[in-house]
Amino acid sequence: MEQIYVAIDLEMTGPEPGQDEIIEIGAVKFRDDTILETFQQFVQPRQSLPLKITRLTGITPSELVNAPRFNTVAPELVKFIKNYPLVGHSINSDLAMLQAQGMAFTQPAYDTFDLSTLLLPGLKKYTLAAVAEHLGIAHPADHRALNDAHVTRQVFLLSPKKYGHLSQRN
Fold first, then answer.
1. Sequence-ordered alpha helix ranges (H) in the chain
2. Closest CA to 129 of 148, 146, 149
3. Among the four residues 34, 80, 124, 160, which has the most C-beta atoms within 10 Å?
4. Are 76 and 70 within 8 A, CB to CB?
5. Which CATH superfamily is domain 4-164 in?
6. 133 class by beta-carbon count within 10 Å (0-12 exposed, 13-18 middle, 19+ buried)
7. For 39-73, what is each residue's pLDDT tens digit?
8. Mean of the pLDDT values across residues 80-89?
9. How many Cβ atoms are within 10 Å of 142's Cβ, its own excluded?
10. Which CA distances in Å does 43 have to 18, 67, 77, 130, 141?
11. What distance, in Å, lies between the first and last C-alpha atoms of the chain?
């Protein structure tokens, strides 16, 4: 695989694009097993951070108070991603959130949730943590953007290798 990809994950104040906001962006640019570059940025929301999100992510309001607003971060993110294919776990929700902020990506996007449901049909759950555990991938900080982007990259790379025999029928 000579292609460069960008695994991306967002942490948000909630799930609703246009209503909720991005609070953390994590992205990993990679080719094969080689990490080329990473991007991590807190983003200051206009709304207060819900307690349930602090409990889920561990991100506190004090970590966001001096963070830039999304419109300041967006040009850096576009420069990082360029036109490389995107990889994410349930990536459509991340892309919808970015689109609600005025960003539209037209390159291919690969969803490790969908990939996992096809290649791992017997799992009880398809959360990133459950898929990572099944594949033997360490996932020390669930619901932190950069860590989740790293884990998503590993799931994307490992799934076809581990289950490639499924497509090799004679």
1. 51-57, 61-64, 70-81, 91-100, 112-119, 128-135, 145-163
2. 148
3. 80
4. no
5. Ribonuclease H-like superfamily/Ribonuclease H (3.30.420.10)
6. middle
7. 999 999 999 999 999 999 999 999 999 999 999 99
8. 98
9. 15
10. 15, 5, 12, 27, 19
11. 24
Q: What gap in Å lies between CA 125 and CA 138, rounded to an integer?
A: 17
Q: How many residues does the chain have?
A: 170
**40 phi and psi, to 5 degrees?**
-140, 130
The two tokens of residue 138 are: 């360490």
* pLDDT in the model for residue 163: 58
DSSP letters, 27-61, are EEEEETTEEEEEEEEE---SSPPPHHHHHHH---H
Q: Which residues pair with residue 26 across a beta bridge?
A: 9, 40
Judge whether 93 and 58 are in contact, CB under 8 Å. no
Task: Compute φ and ψ for 135, nearest 5 degrees.
Answer: -85, 0
Domains in the chain: boundaries: 4-164
Q: Is 23 exposed, middle or buried (0-12, 13-18, 19+ CB in 10 A)?
A: buried
Residue 170 clears pLDDT 50, i.e. is over it: no
Amino acid at 20: D
Q: Which residues lie closer than 8 Å to 63 by C-beta, 6 or more apart?
A: 42
